[in-house]
Amino acid sequence: MSSVMMGHNPHNAGGLLPGAPGKRKEIYKYDAPFTLYAMSWSNRPDRKYRLALGSFIEEYSNKVQIIQLTDEENGEFKVKGSFEHPYPTTKILWIPDTKGVCPDLLATSGDYLRLWKINDQTNEVKLESLLNNNKNSDFCAPLTSFDWNELDPNIVGTSSIDTTCTIWGLETGQVLGRIDGNSVTGMVRTQLIAHDKEVFDIAFSRAGGGKDIFASVGADGSVRMFDLRHLEHSTIIYEDSQQQPLLRLAWNKQDPNYLATMATDGLEVIILDVRVPCTPVATLKNHTACVNGIAWAPHSSCHICSAADDQQALIWDIQQMPRSIDDPILAYKAEGEINQVQWATGQPDWIAICYNQSMEI
């Protein structure tokens, strides 16, 4: 992908990504029948090049497609499954199962958190569970995002426009035994008022065992860190000086001291160090239109990818922090405004982006 990023022919890209010496890279493209927004790489080792894509259609009826690159020679993606989804998905995640021992589950957020199960043999998708924490009301507070704990797949955290975050404990029968027919249920472990206004994103940290610490961002312009063992207080890691809403946050996958965030209509990515609250340790500034997505490298503590409305996906090397980082090491220009970027955990040479009706890896 990287030589393409430097402006070569995308169909004959022999480029290298950091940490992948000598491997050839190609770009593969999939054109969906609808505008794309949410996207997620599958983590299972036996399902390489499999992604889930969510439609962005401004009406009730939306779709999720499961696609897989089946022909590397011709760059052909096959639709492996598809299902209807109420409203656009705000986020999609596959179960963080890198060993392939858990049920093949997919989660989506929108009006509620839903868990879907994919049948290994038929690829048929069925709704396993609809998790609703607001049983006493006819109205739901839409979920803006969620995160699936990578070290304990029984824990999922959601963020909502009602200012709360909810931590769910999933019961998958036996998570470690692949028993078909198990239904998945969820129980609320805790719900907390996380911000003064809407919460836009939530993410678990790998610090301290990886099960208890999470952070959230919201419309009040703050990044707040919580510990499930001590929910009576939270730590404000950062507050935007203009009080601009913060839309996304992402923890560094290798070094839990660092996380990244970005503001509404912001042209920059803010890198924070939890040991030095309130002051960004770096600001990545090369985009010329608003940043829409950030993704840390799964295999490296010093690489992060940002994507924006300027049609660019930029990869940054931040190892010289706290000295300023002026330029990305790689830049890729897409054919449209990029609204999503995801770096594959199980295949760290591969990054996926979405723009308009297209997805490229």
Describe, in plain words, how this protein is organized in 3D.
This protein is an all-beta fold. The protein has one helix and 28 strands. The radius of gyration is 19 Å and the shape is globular. It starts with a helix and ends with a strand.
Helix fraction bin: under 10%
What is the ordering of alpha helices and beta strands?
Answer: HEEEEEEEEEEEEEEEEEEEEEEEEEEEE
Question: Strand arrangement, largest sheet?
Answer: 1-28-27-26
* Class from helix and strand fractions: mainly beta
The number of strands is: 28
Please summarize what this structure is.
This protein is mainly β. About 0% of the residues lie in helices and about 45% in strands.
Structural topology:
Layout: H1 2-5, E1 29-31, E2 36-41, E3 50-55, E4 61-71, E5 76-86, E6 91-94, E7 105-109, E8 113-118, E9 125-131, E10 143-148, E11 155-160, E12 164-171, E13 185-193, E14 199-204, E15 213-218, E16 222-227, E17 235-239, E18 246-251, E19 258-263, E20 269-273, E21 282-284, E22 291-296, E23 303-308, E24 312-317, E25 330-333, E26 338-343, E27 351-355, E28 358-360
Antiparallel strand pairs: 1-28, 2-3, 3-4, 4-5, 6-7, 7-8, 8-9, 10-11, 11-12, 12-13, 14-15, 15-16, 16-17, 18-19, 19-20, 20-21, 22-23, 23-24, 24-25, 26-27, 27-28
Task: From the structure above, extract its key features.
globular, 1% helix, mainly beta, 361 residues, four-stranded antiparallel beta sheet
